[in-house]
Design a protein that fits this description.
The protein is of the alpha+beta class and about 400 residues long. About 30% of the residues lie in helices and about 30% in strands. It has helices at about 20-30, 45-65, 75-80, 110-120, 165-185, 230-240, 295-305, 330-345, 360-370, 380-385, 405-410, and strands spanning about 30-35, 40, 65-70, 75, 90-95, 100-105, 130-135, 150-160, 190-200, 205-210, 220-225, 230, 250-265, 275, 280-285, 285-290, 305, 310, 320-325, 350-355, 375-380, 385-390, 400. The longest helix is centred in the middle third of the chain and has 21 residues, at about 165-185. The protein is elongated, with a radius of gyration of 25 Å.
Length: about 400
């Protein structure tokens, strides 16, 4: 991609209404654009990152037998009346010109359960795992933190359907492992901990996945003995770690990036999602649900990976792997930079080529702000040594690499 053609502009100043680091940097670098409180457009660079995060999630959900579907965002009121959830205060409600009432989906249990009802007849149809990556809507009274608390956001929600609690428990553990694989691949796994939270009517505990960072809004209690985290509600209730019963905790700030729940028959019963067992007896299907917010993960990555100059993208989710900078007016430099751009592109190495008529200072500042993992510099100074300058965004020092060795290094 040639930067001169890129549909984005960087900003020198931080927007006044950007209330956290990730929002400020993503807006300044032209990754997202704020339309209204809690409502953002994803511009080309931001969408590239979002799609990479979604594809990592998709790969790991497929690996635990998830089947991807796509459910409507517009949901009829009667489905929510069946579960007695229509009066929840965080849902958006809309009415058609025919006076029919709808909900803008904040979650999709009311839609996936009737789908499963049509698929499940006997125990031979179970287990079943359905997931989607969909836009969700929440009528938040207080939006802050950019992508971390939005009114419109992306969500991966997987729903599992089982014959009994034992089968659900087994899959629940698989989902935990898959979630940590997702967060490791996104570059936040070393700071993300499994956190015990209230489980509701069906289970004593549910679990959140919290990424530890000083900018987090949540407080978690990290067990010094087993490294499991507990949220404030559980600590106040039982005072000890639910895993090892230790009482020594370290309080940390964190961002919730995922959660998993055992739903039991809360949603299967109202929609008559049942099956015939081996004896021909009708039984309710047991359900679980598993959520990850790709857009929230995107914001969290930057809360964790940045410095005073800008963002530092982990390679797996960066919009491009290489930021190629052509410095100066020399035709020799321009031609060499063009040649390198063509070579990298031919080798399927993702490269953003800064071919703009801008000063070196502007190009360096924008490159630091955007946070692409490798910066490759072509200038009269580097070409005098038959080399290019290469600097990893996560490191301070630039190195000279012989031009013919560049492709080998990047491989």
């Amino acid at each position: 991609m040639r930067q001169s053609k890129l549909a984005t502009k960087t900003l020198k100043e931080t927007p006044k209404d950007a209330d956290n680091i990730s929002a400020a940097l993503l807006i300044r670098a032209g990754f997202i654009d704020k339309l209204s409180a809690g409502i953002y457009s994803f511009l080309p660079l931001g969408l590239m990152v979002l799609k990479k995060i979604e594809n990592i999630i998709r790969t790991e959900m497929n690996a635990i037998d998830g089947q991807e579907i796509l459910m409507p965002a517009l949901q009829p009121r009667e489905n929510w009346d069946l579960t007695s959830r229509y009066d929840l205060d965080f849902i958006f409600k809309v009415k058609s010109k025919l006076e029919k009432e709808f909900v803008l989906g904040a979650t999709h249990e009311e839609i996936v359960a009737p789908i499963a009802h049509k698929m499940i007849y006997s125990y031979r149809d179970l287990p079943l795992y359905l997931y989607q990556i969909q836009t969700k809507f929440r009528d938040e009274t207080r939006t802050k933190g950019g992508l971390l608390r939005s009114r419109e956001f992306s969500m991966k929600d997987l729903y599992s359907f089982h014959t009994d609690e034992k089968d659900l428990d087994s899959y629940y553990e698989k989902a935990k492992e898959a979630y940590f694989k997702v967060f490791n691949r996104c570059g936040i796994g070393n700071l993300t901990v499994l956190t015990y939270s209230s489980g509701g009517a069906f289970s004593k505990f549910s679990h959140e996945f919290q990424t530890i960072t000083e900018s987090g809004e949540d407080l978690i209690y990290l067990c010094k003995k087993c490294n499991i985290a507990i949220n404030k509600e559980i600590i106040e209730e039982q005072k000890v770690c639910p895993q090892c019963e230790a009482k020594d905790f370290e309080i940390k700030k964190a961002i919730e990036v995922g959660n998993i729940f055992k739903l039991g028959t809360k949603f299967s019963a109202p929609f008559e999602v049942n099956y015939l067992d081996e004896k021909g007896e009708k039984k309710d299907v047991i359900m679980g649900c598993y959520g990850i917010g790709p857009s929230r993960v995107l914001g969290t990555i930057i809360e964790v990976h940045h410095d005073e100059k800008g963002m530092i993208w982990p390679e797996a989710v960066a919009p491009f792997r290489v930021h190629l900078l052509s410095l100066g007016e020399s035709e020799n430099v321009k031609n060499k930079a063009e040649e390198i751009y063509q070579d990298l592109t031919a080798k399927n190495i993702e490269v953003l080529f800064d071919d703009r008529e801008e000063s070196a200072g502007v190009k360096f500042a924008d490159s630091d702000l955007m946070g692409i993992p490798y910066r490759v510099i072509v200038s009269e100074k580097t070409l005098a040594q038959d080399s290019v300058g290469v600097k990893k965004r996560s490191e301070k020092e630039e190195k000279l690499i012989k031009t013919e060795k560049l492709l080998e290094m990047l491989k």
